[in-house]
Amino acid sequence: MNGEKISDAGVVMKKSAALFVVLVIITGVFFSGCGNKEEGVQITELTAPVSIQVWYSLGAKYSAPLDVIINQFNESQSMITVEGVYQGGYATTQEKLLAAYVAGEPPVLAQLEQSLVGAFVANEALIPLDSFIKSDKDFDVKDFNKYITQGATYNKKLYGLPINVSTPVLYLNRDLFKQAGLDPDKYPTTWDEAYNIAKKISDLGPDVYGLRIYNSGWIIDSLFHQFGGTIFDKNNTSCLVNSKEIKEAMAFWQKMVIDGVAVYQGGKDGSTMDASGTVGMVMRSTGSIAWFKDNVTFDWGVAPFTLGTTKAVSLGGGNIYMVKKTTPEEQFAAWQFLKYLTNTENQVYWSTNTGYMVSRKSAKESPEIQVILKEDPRYNVTYDQLEHAFARPTVEAWPEIEDLIQEAMTRIILEGASVDILDQTADDIDEIL
Amino acid sequence: MSKLRNKQRTSSWGMKLILEFLLLLFVLIVNIPFFWMISTSFKYAPEILAYPPKLFPSKLNFDGYKYIWTLVPFGRYFINTLFVSISIAVCKIILASFSAYAFAKIPFKGKNTVFFIFLGTMMIPMEVIIIPNYITLNLIGWLDTYWALIIPFIVGAFSIFLLRQFFMQIPRDLDDAAIIDGCGRTRYLFTIIYPLSKPALLTVGLYAFLASWNSFLWPLIVTNSDKMRVIQIALKALQDSWMIDWTSLTAASAIATVPIIILFFFVQKQFLEGIAITGLKG
Amino acid sequence: MLKRKQLDNLQGWLFIAPPLIIFSVFIFIPMLVALFISLQKWNLLSPMRFVGFANYSKMFSSGHFWNSVMVSLLYVAGTVPITILLGLIIAIMLNQGIRVVSFYRIMIYLPVITSMAAAAIVFQYLFEPNIGLFNHILSLFGLPPMQWLNDRHQALIAVIIVGIWKRVGYNAIILLAGLQAIPGYYYDAATIDGASRFQMVRKITIPLLSSVTFFVTVMQIIASLKVFTSIVIMTEGGPARGTDVLPYFLYKNAFQYHKMGYASAAAIFLFTIIFIFTILQFKFGEKKVHYQ
Predict the structure, then answer these.
(1) Domain interval for residue A155
(2) How does DSSP assign B180-232, residue by residue?
(3) ipTM greater than 0.85
(4) pLDDT tens string C232-249
């Protein structure tokens, strides 16, 4: 592999006047070896066509707009060919990326869910974009909403650009609200209000519930924050899952389920219940707006999910990151595509076709988006609550830790265990950290 | 292979009818998932999510199948799986027959020891060796290639075992006659033994094809890219999202399953008999 | 010109060379490598670190590990007896001289040849608590709906049901062959001696079927210990580790938690258990019952 790169550089040397850049490349390749491309070592132009892959976790209808953007990019120029590959869900994509990286053949771009990035960052498998941004005059990183990009920032370096970042919002079954004699425009602003609303709705019938809760990482994290607690301390060195605040949060949810006011689903996919018309409120990603439009027959609304004494919602979704063990040509091509993908026009296109948020201010101000927001204010909710958004955990062992927390939660909520089992959970997690 | 058909004689006519009825009932219950898979694959989403569930879709929805064949390149996965499975089946037949022939007919030193070692491979579950194999494949650069999907499976202890049992039934007189005629071993294998062993060879090939078509863990770990994906992994990828599209998912499942079932109907006699043999010999 | 014996040796080894090589590369050597990795700490991204038996001691003192062992044992206990018994009953029924036996044989074997991934997807839908068929059937009988895959205990029951469904046909076919292999004159002689149907089953069928039954049982146990695909598709080990069988525990630790060494230790443990059962099969399976 080393030999190929050096002969490529040799060809460039004959043709290009950018001798200095080439010398940098050769030196870089020589001294960093095959597996460790230097951060930000760049070329300024491509002299030969290059093809790159971008791996993503968007399935079903969400991949179509991305494919359109990819095709447009490919057709707009002839040096770079981008191939988009669907790898499965977030966890599967992360597994595949790990496997490919270890094998030395990773794609140069991959969409990763924000909480699964920790291991890659810790082991220096990703390339920070700062040097690309600095040297690229066309790219205005300030145009990006800082609340959104905080989810791709680690140790003050920006590693990825947002693609399907979202926040959880509260979906309301307005029909059920009205049936229960509630004003569907009066959404809850505290958990106690949520409890009361849920109670009135669940009183409507034995199979009707006011709220659906489930064990998804970012929802739980939001809950904890809203009660004033956090899973880790500031330096991610110790686990605070057994703090008073979090125990209170779990106990509250436990009460809601025991009182029959909320329903808890421990299994893999509970979304079918949301379409059945038996759930009054459910917090889901703003990206689910499209799903609701397709599958739901009752009148529904969207409300902020900023309940609790502390207003907080977790960021969610994925960013696209650049991966090491790739050639400078691939990285250059990857940067070009990243710029294209996240430019204002494409962000608008993406958002209008999927319902996910735009991350550029210029995109949000664009007439198309403004029209949508005016026509359907449900899309606005996620933007309004952005200032309360916090980033997902970045610890390396998050998958294992998340499993532990979810297991405790299922025990507490479904099996009535005492919230004190969180003490054991905290100990277990501390061991891992 | 002689089979002594044993029927317990005291079953009365009425008894038989009851048994047939019960068996039919059992068959119907066992096949519920298949009915449901096909019917769901033709339903529209609201009908799938509705309750109570109805067996037949009120309007036929072909979007699932359209989506699978066009947007998800299921055709590619189908061909991948077909190619890999047929390659494995053919290789297994040939290589296993050579080994089985050696074990059955050739007296060579260390024969029994090697045979037991071969049988031992059936004990080792895939999960145990999947990680080291991943590393090996990575080292030799076979990850995410057809090689990784095919080569490790071109031999199998089960196939060798099955064929050995069968070959051992071929009378020694035939072997001796061939030796007297000066017929080489390989030629003997192909010209005499193969025609005599068609059912067994077919069983081995079918069994290998089936195992490969349905294999899951191995392709999951050793392939990444879209162009190497096989059907079972494609199923998992489709199922993997947080909002399941049941129509296309069941359509994909149907495409993954129905060809096998159709193939099975054509070859079931030999196949089932082959399976039965293994059980009897323990 | 080689002597006969030399030619035999040469050809014999030549013929078995391909399997020998491939088995060595892809089975035997990986076994040793797995053993080696189980003594290391390795997350794929950084270099390996030798830790001796630390992985094993951590494993044996881990609640999650023993939970997986327990879940696997429960799964075996749930699938094996029922699958064998049901298979036996079906086999006996099929052996009563009913018409079109081959039709039934084919139909009950269909689950066996179906891909587990496809089946698990369909079962996921059937088990759905709100819109699934199974709860609907329960309601037709006046029974309350079950949570199935949403509940820690019921999820295990659900995967057990899928496991039984998948293998009943296989057991039935083999047991049927075993039944048909019992020479008819045993029954004839017994009838002449005036034995009742029940006595015949007890004294003839069951003993003569014993080695086949043993074979089928051990195969079933091993298959149940290796269950993986249905777990991956339907439950991902959950909820709350209720279906976290050993193979899945292994997979999760290796490919999601990136604890290769630890996962390899679990793999070695799994192998040991399966190995023991297979040895048992070889030792005791050869016993056959003969009557004069």
Answers:
(1) 3-166+316-382
(2) HTT--HHHHIIIIIHHHTHHHHHHHHHHHHHHHHH--HHHHHH--SGGG--HH
(3) no
(4) 888 888 788 889 999 999
